[in-house]
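User: I'm curious whether this sequence folds into something compact or stays loose and floppy. Could you predict its structure so I can see for myself?
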Amino acid sequence: MYDSVFQDIKTHIVSFTGLERDALHIYVGIGVFLITSLLFKNHRYRWLIALFAVIAAASMGEVLDRHDQLIIDKHWYWQGSVHDIVNTCFFPTLFTLILTFTHFFERNFERNIAQAHGSKR
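Assistant: Here's the prediction. I'll summarize afterward.
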């Protein structure tokens, strides 16, 4: 039976952590997002760069999965790929939207609100 190095690594991670594959997709997405945002912390578009890194990582993982699946099953179950990509990218997308379009995580949030309303504290 065909077993790729990529599938072996995934199997070891699942057995080591005891987590389901869906949960691991979520953790990988958040992890890639956080690491990339730290690497680009002084860049103006750090959140978008981090999101694109997550999308790239999720896509590459699915390409490797589908390659192995086509060798084994001779069929691509595209619904599984969509499910995995959504699981991986959901929270990083949510974080990017919040961090880009709100002041939710800014340090001086109250001061910014006060300045917007014209009062000084």
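Summary: The helical segments are 5-17, 21-39, 46-73, 78-101, 109-116. The two ends are 69 Å apart (CA to CA).
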